[in-house]
């Protein structure tokens, strides 16, 4: 526990910084959570979808007749019928497309075309899920198969069949090139140019709870009430109102406990729109809970990029600049991919000094599941950069740690700015690299590695370093837009407790605990006296929800400032009641007490009651003990760190054993270290899974090959090692708020860390690792013991 | 393929009587109804979660006559006459079990969706072998998937629960 500080805020630091036990847990540990699948409404019906068995086809005919008269069926909607009820939309993230991107147009259910395996073609609503699925089997769809476009390479071929008629080709965006610095001059001055083709394979979020919705339309009032599994309730509300063409104020969205998401559950999916449309049409509650096969096949996938990179370097290992060409495989209904281009481009220099960058990007459309956000959506920049540094080191015959330390930007040494623009104020990349190297004891590891090699055992060590804009340092000249601000409401209740209303939508991040910790400290009441309300559009302020590692800074900061503002208001009222100056008063443990022992103290209940009644207060005093606060993020700052993996590769079986995994990280001031460490470890586990196990696999005909958890392999307790974490002391950029986000870093940097370790282990075989997915069979191919 | 699509009757109803969390419960179900759906829908015990419905993730684990079972793969009719323990039955009289308490103290979980399955699996493990090593715990949990935590906090919670129930002098 941090010790309490004295002064104006005597209790600050009492909860913040401590591993306070989560207030979420008593319900979740006893089976009393309330996930969307747990909602029961009177008369609730159940939905199931008929889905395309083909990757690309024209829909010739949908025959729903037999299904309509099947037992328990209340309604069936084909694509045409659904098009009457819901407007065409713009993908998983609505129209968050990049600049200059023409949005493909598509209906909620397929009308004329199916564009990926599992594309929804018809919706059945019945008395039970069992009966709905039975009826789905009675629906006959006639397709005319089209050639499937299953790789970006095929998509870029002008002869490929256009997946969207209104686009005319399968190139959604690009190639577009942006240049920073004098690229040609830097390459002309280089001692050598190192080239590499690096790829990242398709893998996906797979939260343990899939998507789901319960929609309930009341024809009498015209109100649509929705329960969703989402990362932000307001986004669901806005999208449903727009696509169903009903007034925003008639739509109410709530969310309870969410069983994970990792970027998947933003906005509304086509299925969710269809279910809400069905409820609207039927005037009854309709529920749809995605099954695992649907989740894997259609909910969304991420991360399929290929890069051609040239690095201009000096013979001493200075990295002068990069030329990068990237192609993203955005899948069938492009949502987030075009938006990522700018982030990947901006972030690719990472914490390193380089003088020039040329970045060319192309976004392709294919007949695969749509590209969605997945924990650190832009992470390919870290994969490419950190793998490239090891390849450069190998070419120069130098240790990668030396090359990293040589090139990393150092505080106090200008220009402390990425070549792409952002300030690197406050970064601790150099410290984290040095600390990780020391903790791993690189020299003695090299000795051990050498001895092991003599015995035919192959050990390797790999490092990766990253920075994450969580939220990133704020440019003092830029004023954040209203959407970028974090809104928060806080009030003192009549019972003396405090309620925090936040637009954050926790789905594992524990905001009901962390925000209560901050509020408790800065208002001055016990943690247990703070309630955090989430997930209800009727109650929580506007905001985008939880994602992008924003919440620690943005919601943590908004809570801190709101608590101080509310405290000031309460002290004003209390000062009137006990006839003293507010500056002499303090709130401690739920009591308003004066510095002078002679002045009496009063309870918060008394203050709240007096403010509500008003008769004991002079006119003109603000009696509303509630504040709305909009936080701009303060000075912001980077999260970041260095990871290190020590692995042993069994060259007979291709199995990789992670012997040690070490994280040295800086996420600013921690609100709750146990929650921070959980975020880090969970991200690392996903990164390990991505490299050793997980792959969203397609056949050449576009058939999805990993539609069950027997085919899409997730890491288990025997795959993930102990993950050691050391927290660095942070550089405080803001006077008050130095909490930074930590949700994505583990997943961002674990893949290159592990890839580098495997490459190091296999160096004696001359193996060059340029791809991210390294399951045993692939490693044996690379080693040469198995034919490709 | 569903039963009706095979031309079989789905409307034959079976009576099911069983004990759930120490209470006698009964219901009338179709043959194809899974134990998980029976618990969640007919008995409104929604603490048991469904993460895959094909036997891999372990979220649906309950104890049937003391043995861990995947309630998504078991039919309700197969549980006739059995004693079933679900997550709702772990806390006694509003008091968390020592395992639940330890998982709380150790920040074992995040989103909580996998939690019921882990708790039931661990409960069975500790019944059968009260003093497992960390390696044995990881092995025993390797059929349960958690996508949030990376497992370390879960294993730590289990080891702490074991330590608190075994005084130091274990031989
Ligand atoms: S739901 Fe039963 S094992 Fe996954
Ligand atoms: S805590 Fe989320 S799946 Fe385990």
Throw out a few tags for this protein.
heterodimer, A: about 800 residues, alpha+beta, Aldehyde Oxidoreductase, domain 4, Aldehyde Oxidoreductase, domain 3, 20 helices, B: about 170 residues, Ubiquitin-like (UB roll), 2 domains, 5 strands, binds FE2/S2 (inorganic) cluster
Whole-number count of domains of chain B: 2
Q: What's the CATH superfamily of the largest domain in chain A, by name?
A: Aldehyde oxidase/xanthine dehydrogenase, a/b hammerhead
Strand segment tally of chain B: 5
Largest sheet features of chain B: 5 strands, mixed
The helix fraction of chain A, in percent, is 25-40%
CATH architecture of the largest domain in chain B: Roll
3D structure, described in words:
- The complex is a heterodimer of chains A (788) and B (171).
- By secondary structure, chain A is α+β, with helices and mostly antiparallel strands.
- Chain A folds into three domains: 4-33 and 478-631, Aldehyde oxidase/xanthine dehydrogenase, molybdopterin binding domain (Aldehyde Oxidoreductase, domain 4), CATH 3.30.365.10; 37-148 and 207-298, Aldehyde Oxidoreductase, domain 3, CATH 3.90.1170.50; 427-471 and 636-783, Aldehyde oxidase/xanthine dehydrogenase, molybdopterin binding domain (Aldehyde Oxidoreductase, domain 4).
- Helix content of chain A is 29%, strand content 23%.
- Chain A contains 20 helices and 26 strands.
- Chain A is globular.
- Chain B has two domains: 7-89, Roll (Ubiquitin-like (UB roll)), CATH 3.10.20.30; 98-165, [2Fe-2S]-binding domain (DNA polymerase, domain 1, Orthogonal Bundle), CATH 1.10.150.120.
- Residues 1-8 of chain B have low confidence and may be disordered.
- Chain B is α+β, with helices and mostly antiparallel strands.
- Chains A and B meet through helix 1, helix 4 and helix 18 of A and helix 2, helix 3, helix 4 and helix 5 of B.
- Residues 50-53, 55-60, 70, 72 of chain B line the site of one FE2/S2 (inorganic) cluster (FES).
């Amino acid at each position: 526990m941090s010790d309490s500080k004295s002064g104006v805020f005597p209790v600050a630091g009492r909860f913040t910084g401590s591993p306070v036990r989560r207030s979420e847990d008593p319900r979740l540990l006893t089976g009393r959570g309330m996930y969307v699948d747990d909602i029961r409404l009177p008369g609730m019906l159940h939905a199931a979808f008929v889905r395309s068995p083909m990757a690309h086809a024209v829909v010739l005919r949908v025959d729903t007749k037999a299904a309509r008269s099947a037992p328990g069926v209340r309604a069936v909607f084909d694509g045409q019928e659904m098009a009457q009820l819901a407007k065409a939309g713009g993908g998983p993230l609505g129209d968050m497309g990049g600049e200059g991107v023409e949005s493909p147009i598509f209906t909620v259910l397929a009308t004329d075309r199916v564009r990926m395996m599992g594309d929804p073609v018809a919706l059945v609503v019945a008395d039970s899920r069992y009966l709905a699925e039975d009826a789905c089997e009675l629906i006959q769809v006639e397709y005319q198969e089209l050639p499937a476009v299953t790789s970006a390479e095929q998509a870029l071929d002008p002869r490929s069949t256009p997946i969207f008629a209104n686009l005319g080709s399968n190139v959604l965006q690009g190639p577009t090139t942006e240049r920073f610095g004098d690229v040609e001059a830097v390459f002309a001055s280089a001692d050598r140019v190192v080239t590499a083709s690096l790829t990242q394979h398709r893998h996906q979020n797979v939260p343990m709870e899939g998507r789901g919705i319960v929609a309930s339309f009341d024809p009498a009032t015209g109100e649509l009430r929705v329960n969703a599994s989402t990362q932000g309730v307001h986004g669901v509300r806005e999208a449903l109102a727009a696509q169903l063409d009903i007034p925003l104020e008639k739509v109410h969205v709530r969310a309870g406990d969410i069983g994970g998401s990792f970027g998947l559950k933003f906005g509304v999916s086509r299925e969710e729109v269809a279910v809400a449309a069905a409820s609207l049409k039927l005037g009854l509650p309709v529920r749809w809970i995605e099954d695992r096969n649907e989740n894997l096949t259609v909910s969304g996938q991420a991360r399929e990029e290929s890069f051609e990179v040239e690095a201009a370097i000096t013979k001493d290992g200075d990295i002068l600049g990069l030329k990068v060409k990237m192609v993203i495989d955005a899948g069938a209904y492009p949502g987030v991919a075009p938006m990522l281009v700018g982030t990947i481009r901006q972030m690719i220099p990472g914490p390193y000094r380089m003088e020039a960058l040329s970045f060319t990007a192309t976004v392709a459309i294919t007949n695969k599941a749509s590209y969605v956000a997945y924990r650190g959506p832009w992470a390919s920049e870290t994969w490419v950069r950190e793998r490239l540094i090891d390849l450069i080191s190998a070419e120069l015959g130098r240790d990668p740690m030396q090359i990293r330390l040589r090139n990393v930007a150092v505080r106090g040494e200008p220009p402390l700015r990425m070549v792409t623009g952002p300030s690197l104020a406050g970064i601790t990349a150099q410290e984290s690299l040095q600390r990780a190297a020391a903790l791993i004891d690189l020299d003695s590891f090299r000795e051990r590695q050498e001895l092991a090699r003599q015995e035919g055992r192959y050990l390797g060590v790999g490092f990766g370093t990253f920075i994450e804009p969580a939220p990133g340092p704020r440019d003092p000249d830029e004023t954040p837009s209203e959407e970028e601000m974090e809104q928060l409401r806080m009030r003192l209740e009549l019972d003396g407790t405090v309620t925090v209303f936040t637009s954050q939508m926790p789905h594992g991040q524990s905001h009901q605990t962390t925000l209560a910790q901050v509020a408790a400290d800065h208002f001055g009441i016990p943690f247990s006296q703070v309630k955090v309300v989430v997930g209800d559009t009727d109650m929580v302020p506007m905001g985008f929800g939880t994602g992008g590692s924003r919440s620690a800074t943005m919601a943590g900061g908004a809570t801190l400032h709101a608590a101080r503002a509310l405290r000031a208001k309460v002290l004003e009222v209390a000062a009137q009641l006990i006839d003293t100056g507010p500056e002499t008063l303090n709130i401690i443990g739920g009591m308003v007490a004066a510095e002078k022992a002679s002045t009496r103290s009063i309870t918060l209940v008394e203050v709240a009651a007096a403010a509500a009644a008003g008769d004991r207060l002079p006119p003109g005093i603000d009696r509303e003990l509630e504040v709305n606060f909009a936080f701009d993020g303060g000075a912001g700052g980077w999260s970041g760190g260095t990871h290190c993996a020590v692995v042993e590769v069994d060259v007979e079986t291709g199995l990789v054993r992670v012997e040690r995994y070490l994280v040295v990280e800086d996420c600013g001031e921690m609100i709750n270290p146990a929650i921070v460490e959980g975020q880090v470890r969970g991200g690392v586990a996903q990164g390990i899974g991505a490299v050793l196990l997980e792959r969203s696999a397609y056949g050449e005909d576009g058939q999805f090959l990993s539609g069950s958890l027997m085919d899409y392999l997730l890491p288990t307790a025997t795959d993930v090692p102990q993950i050691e974490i050391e927290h660095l002391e942070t550089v405080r950029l803001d006077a008050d708020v130095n909490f930074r986000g930590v949700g994505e870093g583990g997943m961002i940097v674990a893949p290159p860390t592990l890839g580098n370790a495997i490459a190091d282990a296999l160096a004696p075989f001359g193996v060059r690792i340029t791809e991210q997915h390294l399951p045993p069979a692939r490693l044996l191919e690379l080693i040469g013991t198995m034919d490709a | 393929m569903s039963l009706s699509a095979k031309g079989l009757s789905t409307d034959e109803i079976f009576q099911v009587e069983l004990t759930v969390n120490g209470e006698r419960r009964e219901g009338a179900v179709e043959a194809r109804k899974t134990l998980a759906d029976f618990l969640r829908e007919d008995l409104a015990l929604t603490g048991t979660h469904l993460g895959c419905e094909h036997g891999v993730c372990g979220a649906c684990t309950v104890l049937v006559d003391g043995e861990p079972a995947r309630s998504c793969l078991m039919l309700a009719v197969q549980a006739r006459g059995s004693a079933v323990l679900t997550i709702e039955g772990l806390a006694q009289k509003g008091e968390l079990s020592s395992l639940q308490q330890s998982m709380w103290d150790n920040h074992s979980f995040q989103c909580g969706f996998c939690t019921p399955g882990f708790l039931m699996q661990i409960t069975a493990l500790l019944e059968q072998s009260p003093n497992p090593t960390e390696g044995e715990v990881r092995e025993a949990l390797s059929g349960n998937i958690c996508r949030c935590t990376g497992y370390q906090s879960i294993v730590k919670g289990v080891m702490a629960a074991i330590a608190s129930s075994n005084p130091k002098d274990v031989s």
